[in-house]
Each structure stands twice: as C-alpha cells, then as structure tokens.
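Teaching note: in complex prediction, the entire set of molecules is handled at once rather than each chain in isolation. The prompt given to students was simply: 'Predict the structure of this complex.' The entities are:
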Amino acid sequence: MRASPRPVFQTLFNGLITGVIMTLPALAVTLLFGVLKFPNFAVGAMMTVAAYLAFALNAQLGWPLLVASLVAALGMGFACIAIDQVTFKPLRERGAITLMVASLGLGFILENIARFAYGNTARSFVMELARPFRFFEIRMNREQMITIAVATAAMLLMWALLTRLPIGRAMRAVADNPALALVRGIESPRVIRWTWFITGVLLGVGGVLVGMDRALEPPMGSNYVISVFAAAILGGLGSPLGAFAGALIIGVVSELSTLVMAPNYRIGVPLMAIAIILIFRPQGLFGQPYIRR
Amino acid sequence: MRGNDSGGEMISFLVLLGIVVCFSAILALALNFQWGLGGMVNFGLTGFYALGAYSSALLMLKAGANTFFATLGAILIVALVCGLVALVTLRVAEEDYFAIVTLGVGEMLRLVVLNEDWLTKGALGLTGIPRPLGDLVPPGQYQYFLLALSAAALLGVLAFLTVIQRSPFGRLVRAVREDDVVAATLGKNVLWARVRIFAIGGGIIGLAGSLHSFYYQYIDPTQFTNIVIAYAFMAVIAGGRGAHRGAILGAAAVMVLLEGSRFVKDAIPALDSDQLAAIRIIIIGAGLIALLIWRPQGFLREYRLKISP
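The expected output is the structure of the full assembly:
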C-alpha cells in the first residue's frame, strides 16, 4: 500500500493534515481539562460515535455530507451535555482519578455502541470523487483541502468565542481560577454545560474529518487518543493556543518519523513527546508554570 | 453417547471457568495493589498482561526455558517495565499524566506484539506453548491440575499481598495514596515507593499473563483487548478499592457473568459474535460507571489496623 519512499515535502504535508485534524480534539481535551480538571479518556470514542452519526445521515439517509456533519456535530454537542448530566455530574466532587476511570468506561460504552450498530468493517462517507491535484510535487486531494478549510474555520470561531463572547471569557475564568470565578458571580453549571457542548461539537467535526481522512471503523477515534493528549500536554493542558500548536507539532513530527522508522510505531512519537515534556517542561509550551502544593 | 457426556461437559466447563476466574482474580489483585492501595491508575493493563503472556511463551519457545523459569522471567520482565514507566513518569507528573502514559505504553506493547512478526508471529499468534508438567499429568486430568495450580498461584499472591499490606511498606503505600506530600514531609521517598508499588503490581500481572498462556497454549493479539482492562477495573471497583478479597470476589463475579453471557448467543441467535462482544463491553462499562456513582466504596472494605479494645 505504501509507495516507495515519499519525498520529504509530501510527508510534511500529510503530517500537517494529521496535525490540523488533531487540533479539534486537542482543543476539546484542553478546554474540558481547564474547566473540569480531568483528562477525558472518552474523546476518541466520542469522535467515533459522531462520525458514525454523520455516516448514518450521509450514507443511509442520503443527506449531503456537509449537512450530515453539521447535524452530527451539533448532535454530539447536545449528547455531551446529556452524558455529563448522567455520568460526570454525580462524580464531580470525587477527584480526577474517579472521573478518569468513569471516562474510560464511557469510552468503552460509546465505541462499542458504534461496533454494535455497524460491526468492525471499515466504511466511508458518500461523497463525489475528485482527482487529487499536484502543487509543487505535493499530491493533495480535495478531502485534505476541505479538512484545512473546516479546521481553520473552527479554530477562528473558537478564538472568537473564547476572547470575544461572555461565555468564552467565563470559561477561561473558571479554568483559571474556579473559586475567584464563583466569587465574581459566574455560574459554573452554565459554563460546564457550554464547555461540554463545545467539546462535543469539536469532537464531532474532528470525528468526521478523521473518517474522511482514513475510514470509519470503531477504533478510529481511540487511535488518536494518545496523540491528542500528547498535543494537549505539549501545548500545556488548559491552554487553547497551546493545544493548537501542540497538535500541529505532534502531527508533523509523527508523520516525519515514518521516514526513519517503521510507520507502525508512529504512536511512539507522542509517547516520547509526553515523556520529554514531563521531564523538562511539565507545564508545556504555553501552560502556566507548574506549582506543587 | 453425547447425551451421557453432558454432565462431564458441564463439569469441564466449570473447571475451565474456575481457571479463568483464578487468573482474572490475580490480574484484579495486581490492579488493586497498584490502583486500590497505591493510588496509581494503570490504563495500560492490557499491554502489560500481553507482555507477561508473550514473555513467558517466548522464553519457552525461543529460549528453551522450562515453565517455572519462563514464569519467573515473565514476572521479572513485566515488573521491570512497570518500574521503568513509573520511574520516568512520576519524577514530575501527577496522576492524570501517569494514566495517559500507561495508556500509551500499553498501546505500544500491543503494537510490538502485532508488528514484530519475527518474534511474536504477529496476528498469527504463538502456538504450541508448553504447560507445567505437561508430560507427567495425563491429558484427561490436566484441567484439574491446572485449576489446582492456578488456585495455588492465586492464594500465593493473596498471601503475599496481605503480608505486604500489613507490613511497614504497606503503610507507606497507603500513605502515598492518601497524600504524597505528607508522606514526603515525613521523610519517605515517594518516588521510590511508587516505583516499587507499580513494579510489584507488574510482577503479579506477569504471573497472570504466564498462566494465561499455559491455559490457552495459544496466544494471539486478539486475546488482549479492552475487555481485559474493563473487567479488571470493574472487579476492583465492585470488590472495594484496596480490599484484596473483594477484588477476588469481584473478578469471580465479572468472569461468571462474562462467560455466562455466551449462553445469551444461543438465546438470541440474531446477534453475531462482534455484537455480542460489544454488548459485553457496554454492560461492563455501564456497570463500572454505575458502581462509581452509587457504590464507590464497593462491597468489601479495605483491611485496616484496628486498636483492640
């Protein structure tokens, strides 16, 4: 399947696409960590479920992929609010470990709902085929162009939301200092609902992009979990800008690593990245300095 | 002829179930030590378990070790790897980071098993794994022997962990779980304690993996999926974090449910095996969350020193 050694620029470009796709889930992880202070291990499965939802609307009901994806992403946003009410809200005061274990269990449930419904066979969205085109020796296809456009639009919207809208500022305030935010009259349940909604939408769009880039299969989302966490940690957990940069770096470096080592061990890159960051700069590139009690 | 056999088949099924319960319980005890007592989440459990099974099998098949030394080797290898993971990660990190790293290492181990064909035969798996005293015990009786052996291993692990738990080191383990800063302030070396906790748990995982390869005599990557980690966590939470006997009871209950659910397939023939596997994991995941919400303390209590009246 893999052709003879690809030129470096092609690999770089492919890595950039992987990184661009990962910016969305990495931002979701970091936002949620900022507000709720636990790493959500169900991110992968949430992407999977949203992608299959889009698949159901697109391939089975015949909706155009754009509409199907939008509905699936919004649906995932609302689903996340519901999931939080049922699963995480009762556990809120129990500490990060309990929430992590619950999110692990939730991930198993969601991924296997997709497996139950559609089996282990790989599937793909229905969209018209277009010939890949070349740009200075780099082969690009239309899906990759769409990916870049969609992810850029999502990032700009997120930036506007976090810096310009009251709810975004409230989210950043809660992430920064929950006690102070409470004193200033910021309603945390509302902030938490919004955070989950945005998380869900980001993961929904991310899931569709992954499905477009590769194929739809139950582990499609969980395959990205390590890289996404590595991206968020590299950028500094809780820092949206950091998640964006981290995702691009991890994507590009993972892909470049295939030039020098077996592509199957690509996942070693994010893993090494986490180890190196933790040893030399635990707060990540853009994170707050790390203060122990 | 078949009809007369059904009683024997039932006994056989129960014996095999007993063996599976034993090594699941050993795995649950390992997780209970690392997470329940030591507070160190291990999301890479499946990978470490696979490492144990493959180490044991490869030591026998490639290095010609006998079953005893293969098991010992598997214990040491997994303990060493777990200790290293703890050493590298915990130098600076908090629990959340540790969980992520264990997840990544577990996944990496799984990939090695799947991709290093020259060593592990990849997706084909390893066959013809020798069993302890395989040529001395008659084949017809072997399952009873393996049950006895697994039960002995389980009791041995339980005794070992009980001794540790009641020793000064056991108090250190709980102190590190409850508040590492206080433990450090009292002059304890928290990092070293955590490395030992994780390594000891790893050794026990290696033992469970070794028993796994004796039992199946054939191992391949599909045996080491998320269901392993799901049921281990379920067993520990149901049993009550920190309670050894609870973890064993929890593992037994979960395995009986899992193995019992194969009869569901006969009841609902419309389900294919993938769907059945999916339902099992959905049920375990839901049970896990339900327990965390409604009965986080589990059903048994952790052993505590009591002041006698």
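Point out the following to students. Residues 150 and 156 of chain B are 10 Å apart (CA to CA). Chain B touches chain A through 44 residues (CB under 8 Å).
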